[in-house]
Amino acid sequence: xxxxxxxxxxxxxxxxxxxxxxxxxxxxxxxxxxxxxxxxxxxxxxxxxxxxxxxxxxxxxxxxxxxxxxxxxxxxxxxxxxxxxxxxxxxxxxxxxxxxxxxxxxxxxxxxxxxxxxxxxxxxxxxxxxxxxxxxxxxxxxxxxxxxxxxxxxxxxxxxxxxxxxxxxxxxxxxxxxxxxxxxxxxxxxxxxxxxxxxxxxxxxxxxxxxxxxxxxxxxx
Length: 221
Prior knowledge:
Elements: E1 4-11, H1 20-28, E2 37-43, E3 52-56, H2 65-73, E4 77-82, E5 87-89, H3 96-100, E6 112-114, E7 139-142, H4 143-149, H5 164-174, E8 187-189, H6 199-214
Parallel strand pairs: 1-2, 1-4, 2-3
Antiparallel strand pairs: 4-7, 5-8, 6-7
Helix pairs in contact: 5-6
């Protein structure tokens, strides 16, 4: 297996030139300071280009969660950064993996850190969770954490689109390692195209997983 420092996972089923190509261009322009990287793009439409590994999303998969999990299976990076096809990274965002290597995470079992969006503060979990943790927005993972603690999944596979980051934030908090969001780097929206058609379904999944956790099912998946 080729050793790579960072795998970006980018799901997209929308117009390539308007969405995913703009993100790919952005990633290829970032300041990597010698770090190696790959872009895993998961889409029903074939896409090629610089540093791209294409993964065909077969069938009509609803939402992006399945695509993130499939992309992870094809990735080689020691660290994994999740992308959205309507957000840019700021220039130095790849340096966030240095934070996961720092003293801040030395004694943590789960090496996960999150990127904020649009230069505003963290987002609290819904009040009904009775949890002081925050939503794990745009998480960045060390590979061993995904394999050893998250059952090999980026996001819980029952979700479709939204709320898997709520579950990750809740679960980490309950496991004694609340989400850390690092404000020095950012994700910036370039297209206000948020799809909420699966929100009711996903929120019900989230509530069910919380209920199961309280009944003593403590695994992430």
